[in-house]
């Protein structure tokens, strides 16, 4: 057994309690979804693997980028599958072929597997920074978020979180080429990989600064090509897909034009702030249907505000509990990308699912409390998340 495999086995054994806890809280959510689906004569895996954006991924997995739904979006622009990055549907197609589960089953299998890998990565980083107790709590927190049900959908967030977590872990271990390659894969998974690219670039710059003013003259010069290579590799997945889309469509701005069909763009947060203002107004629309819808979206809105508070807490940490710079850059980058997104329904709560470093301050705070206090709290959060997941899956709109 090579040293790398032995190290992975030791790490997995150390992470098993955290993974078991994650599987328990998410398993509760999945069981409730399955029970509700079967009770209403709905195929649960089909529902999880074709709901909202999952339907687009299923179409790409089956037909590539050649088939669309024929609908017209905002500004008269047709909806196009090219808005969705390719790695996740490719893996879903492969899983479907290898297992015979069908497209929806293949996508869900990839998501469930990626969720466990992501949970392992979340634990590995937290364990390195604060110990196994912090790691276990951080993993459970990730599994009981209000939109944690998305971790079980045929969505790309679990895969992106797994790739991001292990890329950041590789940066902490200075496994530069591994980090660069994982960032390439993340760039083929979601457009928000720009935050991970920034984290890799910042980590590489810090490493070069450690070599002195003229690092190429130092004794470490022979090793400095690795962080440089990682920084150069990092954006290739994201840039590669945008370049491919530009070539396929015949326009250098093709991807951004396609995204405009969903009425998205950049307005530096104005749409997000306006959405929050409208939601607050609707909460007081007594007797009106809008009030019921606003209460249904309240967990998502509050999650976005909680992420803001956690970001401030993470940035204010000092001493041994201050997170390494790549983690802060990644989390802040994701928050910034999502905040400035001009979407009519800002999907902050869902798009920030991969921003797991923001959970570490909360995990550290809980780790300092008595277990008899935090266990009921986390159990209640798991039940609430599971119930909200059922409501979102069968009665809500697109998760945002």
UniProtKB/TrEMBL annotation:
One of its GO terms (cellular component) is membrane. GO terms for biological process: GPI anchor biosynthetic process. It comes from the Bacteria. Pathway: Glycolipid biosynthesis; glycosylphosphatidylinositol-anchor biosynthesis. GO terms for molecular function: alpha-1,6-mannosyltransferase activity; GPI mannosyltransferase activity. Pfam families: PMT_2 (PF13231). Coiled coil: none annotated. InterPro entries: PIG-V/Gpi18 (IPR007315), RgtA/B/C-like (IPR038731). The keyword Glycoprotein does not apply. Residues 86-210 form the Glycosyltransferase RgtA/B/C/D-like domain. PANTHER family: GPI MANNOSYLTRANSFERASE 2. This is Dolichyl-phosphate-mannose-protein mannosyltransferase. It comes from Streptacidiphilus jiangxiensis.
